[in-house]
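Entry: Alpha/beta hydrolase fold-3 domain-containing protein
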Amino acid sequence: MGRIFLAGESAGGTIAHNIAVRAGATGTAGFGVRGLIIMHPYFANEEPDKLIKYIYPTCSGLFEDPILNPEADPDLSKLGCSRVFVCVGEQDWLKPRGVGYYEILKRSGYGGTVEFVETEESAGANLAHYVAVRAGATGLVGVKLNGLIMLHSYFVTSEPEAIMPYLYPTCSGLDDPLLNPGADPDLAKLGCPKVFLCVAENDWLKQRGLDYYEMLKKSGWGGTVEFMENEGEGHCFHLFNPTCEKALDLFQALESFINQK
């Protein structure tokens, strides 16, 4: 069968991780694991989680169970692939577990490369941007941001919008850096070397994404920006129709961006 990638999201990410560890510890017949993609993984927390027993019915449910807690696995450093990609979502309640997995794997003695990215769309993309700027300006202990993915971002215009206080309840107004990258004195310190920016042709927020692109290029930031426009599509179309041709084109572009060195 050759060499394959293992990938999983949420609880599936945890299962993919365990398969990769077993592959490295005991071997696999007929194929090798080339890489591991972990999206928003659902590992155990130190506090009991009633949902865990339903997601992993054969596990003990305890924090010390290697199926649930990679740090408790004596075979973690034998992870059977040369590359791992870890993705977390800024607004995901599981984000700390994904960040924790990244840190555990780097400490384990695993000899492959581990890449980490935080991604969001719409208003979530704004938050991901803001976290990346703060990471560059003040540091982010234990985590290195390899890139920032911005899909159909929802920044402000010069006119007040009634929905903004609900999206960003702690913001102070139109000049708040959380809403307006052009008002952020630390924009040039964006804490990653590359950004993928995507707008949709029929999205009413398209111009805001284009404005962000221009702000970033003029800011003095030293990284690279990859730009993509989804022709004929609207806001976050890929979430509603993930198997359409344009969505697949987007996913392929994201894969290429993530794999860039």
